[in-house]
Write a structure and sequence with these properties.
- This protein has helices at about 5-30, 55-70, 80-95, 110-120, 145-160, 185-200, 220-235, 255-265, 285-290, 305-320, 355-360, 365-370; strands at about 40-45, 70-75, 100, 125, 135-145, 170-175, 205, 245-250, 275, 300, 340-345, 345-350.
- By secondary structure, it is an alpha/beta fold.
- The strands form three sheets. It has a six-stranded parallel β-sheet with strand order 2-1-3-4-5-11, sandwiched between helices. The protein has a four-stranded parallel β-sheet with strand order 7-6-8-9, with helices on both faces. It has a two-stranded antiparallel ribbon with strand order 10-12.
- The structure holds beta-D-glucopyranose.
- Beta-D-glucopyranose (BGC) binds near residues 220, 254 and 281.
């Protein structure tokens, strides 16, 4: 080899070595998730339904973030049907899942299938909703659900200035599915603020329905909430010019939307007299209702944050690292307190929705304004 050629060859060879070294370095950096980068680590993600906007977002966020970290993802939606969720989980376990991430339809219905997961040492992360009565749940990631309810109660308290008024102000209540353990936090959270005003007569429920089971909504469905609100309207003539109605405490947006529909159908129109309706999730429809004046507030739970927390948990498990948690005393699943990572919810109203949701990149202008 001529001297010049040899020199070029050596430079090229050195460049290749540097490039290879850099590539390995990048790989390591990308994986801080150990064996994950080669796709060998399988994550089964089980979401309850595609019917509600949020679970589609949760599923998409999880799939994207987990895939970016090099995990193989099996994402399934269970059409709000418990046997479907159970069989999807059985399939994930059968296909060799290394971790399961589950937003349960019915927190009490997974004991048997998760016993199989536990027997195979598959860690289970309860996503958003706690899974009850099983020792198989390893971690829980959610928002502070009691605080969500408190925010809804505080909003109504402040909007009606309850501490300084004698009332009576008239209010009805809607919470979610009885099988969803979250309602045991949302509803008591709201009642922790509102119950004293019911007790002293500042607030009155025309229907008298203030018990969590009486105000539950099967499947969190908009239609079921609408039907119940229509019945409550008929029961006490809750129409403009009839019996007054000042507020409807709804635990989330899908129920709030049903209540809004029923009120509009009963002749209520947007404006100062429209009953104060609470919600949570910042669903696009509910954000539009806030803009239209037919829902007063929602609670923003950034699904990107929840998904990122869970992806960090999965990575730590894959690497054998310590999983980050910030609560060990509040979420008992009937067997034990589950190590939990809680994120903070944020109140969303007409005053801050733009900053939170559009400037924050959660929605585009086109998604909200059409
Ligand atoms: C979630 C809420 C959601 C509701 C209905 C709850 O478990 O925390 O964000 O609105 O389920 O899907």
């Amino acid at each position: 080899m001529k001297q010049a050629t040899k020199k070029i060859f050596m430079i090229l060879a050195a460049a290749v070595v540097v490039a290879l070294f850099a590539a390995c370095g990048n790989d390591d950096a990308a994986t801080t998730g150990g064996g994950a980068a080669d796709g060998a680590f399988r994550v089964g993600v089980s979401m309850p339904t595609m019917d509600l906007q949020r679970w589609n977002q949760d599923g998409a966020n999880l799939r994207e973030m987990l895939t970016e970290r090099g995990f193989t993802v099996d994402l399934q939606f269970a059409a709000n049907d418990v046997p479907t969720q159970v069989s999807q989980l059985e399939n994930m376990i059968g296909a060799g899942a290394d971790v399961l991430v589950i937003a349960a339809i019915d927190g009490d219905a997974l004991t048997e299938v998760l016993a199989t997961a536990e027997a195979q040492n598959i860690p289970v992360i309860a996503y958003d909703r706690l899974i009850m009565n099983t020792s198989a749940v390893t971690y829980y990631a959610t928002f502070d659900n009691f605080l969500v309810g408190q925010m809804q109660g505080e909003f109504i308290r402040d909007a009606l200035d309850l501490p300084n008024q004698s009332g009576p102000f008239y209010i009805e209540f809607f919470t979610g599915d009885p099988g969803d353990n979250n309602i045991n936090f949302f509803f008591p959270g709201a009642m922790s603020i509102l119950q004293p005003f019911l007790d002293d007569g500042t607030l009155v429920s025309p229907s008298g329905q203030t018990d969590i089971m009486a105000v539950a909504t099967l499947g969190w469905s908009t239609e079921n909430a609408q039907t119940r609100m229509e019945n409550l309207i008929a029961l006490n003539n809750l129409v403009p010019g009839g019996h007054p109605l000042h507020a409807v405490m709804c635990s989330n947006d899908s129920t709030a939307q049903g209540v809004t529909n029923a009120l509009l159908n009963a002749g209520w129109t947007a404006g100062a007299d429209f009953p104060i309706i609470t919600g949570q999730d910042c669903d696009i429809i509910s954000v539009r209702n806030m803009i239209a004046g037919t829902q007063a507030m929602s609670v923003f739970k950034d699904t990107r944050v929840l998904a990122a927390n869970v992806v960090d948990m999965v990575s730590a498990i894959a690497d054998g690292n310590t999983v980050r948690i910030n609560n060990t005393t509040d979420y008992h699943n009937g067997i034990r307190f589950i190590p939990t990572y809680l994120s903070d919810p944020i109140v969303a109203t007409l005053a801050n929705y733009r900053e939170l949701l559009i400037d924050g990149g959660y929605y585009t202008e086109a998604e909200i304004y059409g």
